[in-house]
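Sequence in, structure out. First:
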Amino acid sequence: MRRRRSEGGRLFRSAAALLAALTLGPSAGVAVAGAQDANAAGAISLLLPLGARLVGVGGAGVAGQFGAESQLVNPAALGFATRREISLLHGQDLSARRDLLSVVIPQRRLGTFAGSGYLVNLGEVPATDDFGNQIGTVYSRTVSLAASYASTFGRDVAVGLTYRLLQVRFDCSGTCTNPNVPTFTDNEGGTASMVDVGAQYDLRRHLPLALGLSLRNLGRRLQVRDSEQSDALPTQLAVGARYDVAAIARLDTNARLRVSADVVRGLGAAGADPAVHVGAEGTFRNTFMLRGGWVQKRGDSGPSVGFGYASRRIGFDVARQISGLSVDAGEPPTFVALRYYF
């Protein structure tokens, strides 16, 4: 029997809270609390880190150029892309497993187009009957599709826009008819559409410096059937800078060192707590990359390290956060990226 709308909204919230508590563990509590609104749990995937290159530099990517991964932090960076790229990103920690497939296609006269599909598996909860016997499984997932466009103005300025459609799902296998089971009989969930906008200014003709600005997750509330049962999105404002250390290139023309820093602030009731991201990337012969970073935020600060390899056609990156709640629980956050240029 189909549940009433008001009950559907209540179950959506109880499902989000229960799944966060049972499947995401301590880090979920930080993420939900950091959103300053338990109702924003359905959009938790918007706050999870992803991308081995970005994680390696502590997430400081607003003023950087990280290919397809830039779609996650500042779409304007795509305007400076020069190679077509297909990327597969994977990340896993205590809170969730996530996978993203993206493609970037720069066109000299038209700008750069990019698209991606993103799946986040937030975990599962056994559905039991009144006697404690398992009769099914509830799966908590989010699925999102994104399309981006970026263009340059002259050689120094780029602007970009991303449109994203997000769906939060509580799916069931088996039988989930027990009223204590937090799911919907017809696999309903919440949906939301949002945009990211950004800009970058590269001062390389004057200084080895680049500046970036992005506004992320800007949109209407996460919709569960009607406006009275909607949840706020975690909108964020981020500013960043990137600096090329010229002294390294003078010592060895095959070497390059870039340092970067971002400041991120949540906007509105569901915005995440302020955070500072700093990182560095050393490159040798444009082939081998070594990265290090630090994230400073309430409840879950710590360093990250990463390594990368790139050739004319392929790229491989790996990164790991080496402290935090997930590490303390025995599951260090690990991120892998595979790239193909064509």
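Second:
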Amino acid sequence: MTHDPRLEVFANHRTVRKYKAVSLEPGHLEQIVWAAQRAPTDATAQMYSFVRLTNPALREEIARVSNNPHMATASETFIVLADVNRLKGLLELKGYDFGNWSAAAIHFAIGDAVMAAQNMLVAAELLGYQGCWIGGILGALEHLVEVLELPEGVLPFAGLTIGVPDETPPVRPRIQTELVLHENKYHKPTESELETALERMAPITARGDWAQTLSRYFAVGGTMEAREITLRKVMASQGFAHVSSDLNALFARTLEAGYAELLIRKVGSEYQAWVDRPDRAHGGTGSSPYMAILNAILEAEKDTATINH
């Protein structure tokens, strides 16, 4: 498709991980953040924040734990946050009790954060820079919560780097428009259409096999299963209670993993939980009954996934 010249910034979009050792031009950071704040937001709430990483040692540390070296070398590096903590403070300042809507909170806060951060990246590209979204921070969520001193109600969503590119990677293809643009109702793709999508995306992989690339992330034994464990723990610890409020759902998970018994007790200021079956048992500890049970179940689910794999 021939694109309108006014949309050239999208045609030139690339994911860049190698940057020149230069700073942004004066005033450009402020312009980029201004663009981020002009993004749409649910109910005017602006449920997002950015942590700008300027401490070299901290940047190196986060680059290391997230396995993304360019977080230490880009002109600017940010952690994109879903943030309902500020909203809670605003309401409580004026005497309002914060509502019980944690599932909706993460839904809308992530939406706000994505729209704001993407505005930031597009603005940077319009000013002549390139950048990279970084999902790899998901493997270091607990560490980020600690070192960034994130309060309850704040969840790291992604990293974002911006800078002057020192590489020109090829523009990556996309699957056919017909698979992402549906009219009036959802169109479930046919096997033929899926094969075409795999063929279109094959050039981005070393072996010409996009399905194999996807499997390393999303199939059984892929990295997303490990990230799932960390994400659930951090979401619960950061106060998104829809992860932690339903003990019936937790027990259903123990049954699904093949464990018919659930034991819990309090020891000092902590709780201990075990899930048992005749051939094995898994334990977990936590500051609440839910967290203890969740940690035990997560260990059981890891064990089950390893056995099945």
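Remark: The radius of gyration is 22 Å.
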